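Posting for a labmate who doesn't have an account.
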Amino acid sequence: MFTEDIRKTHSEQNQSVSRNFLFRPKTFFGPDAGVFRQPKDKTPGKTATVKATAPTVLKGLNRTLYVVQNDVWNDSPEKVRTSAVKELERLFAFVGKVKGEKPFTIKVMSAQQLPEQFDFSESVVSVIDGDPKGYVDQAFDLQKSQIKKWLEQQKVQVHAEKDRDFDPGKPETLGRGGASKTILKDKKQVYAMPVMAGAVSLPEILEAFFDNIDDLLEKQFLRLGIDKKNPKKWPSKISTKDGKMSWDALEMLGIAVGRAIAHEGRHEYIGGGHAEAGLGADSPIILGEKNSENFSEKDQKEFLKKVQDLEKQQGKATIVPTFPQENRSKKELFPF
């Protein structure tokens, strides 16, 4: 089950270069990949003039969900990882389908590859084998500490911070996520302070996986003596004894992981609330339930609206770095 995720911690929370290729023959391809013909002109030496079409400028900041390439992620079978990323891309594809809107991107990055600073349209989720609540609590504390340190170095007055408002939580959880993306004004300077983190527990996802798969598939795990807790030992295909039915359990597990990550990533934009239905609902079933295979249409609209609001809120503010280079040599300072 998912927790009631972190609520807002401040009042403000809850709220390329393209090239045209011109070929010498009479046919050329414009920036929209349409085929055009040079107009007939019998005037000797006269060349037809083609008016270039300006590239479409899409609205939005980076709009990226980063999956941390940590030991737990790297230790998972490649098919699980590939399936999880594919599912994440599918789940957030709705953002780029809205005319004029910049698509949502999924990037898997190691700690050393992550940006030093994140804009309000970005989020970070880690797959772990421990307690998601404790993990996210620590991530919040490390980011807030770094923000305070940086502001003090800039001689910016740091105001007293309000206590974070947590939902009660539940004893068994798949994950936890939340954010506090706020603005600080000091004299003529405006600073954007993005604090966000999400974590999902792989052992809990595995338990939920076996709670929701077909009983016949689970019987094959028992019949074949497959270690349920160690996906690295799962075969690429699991079949019934007569061979009439088979499953790609690794791909299925990857889908479950992707949906768990997406649910927590959503909370880094929406806040602590849940949707009425779909994957954004409270405690969604991440496999084998059609109603939670996608974010609901209403939730999709609310998600995009929240991203747009956060981007507008950030504006041209200076982003405070939460993971500077000097912190990267110390594993205990990793804030995501």
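Reply:
Got it, the structure tokens are right above this. Confidence is low (pLDDT under 50) at residues 1-40, 163-172.
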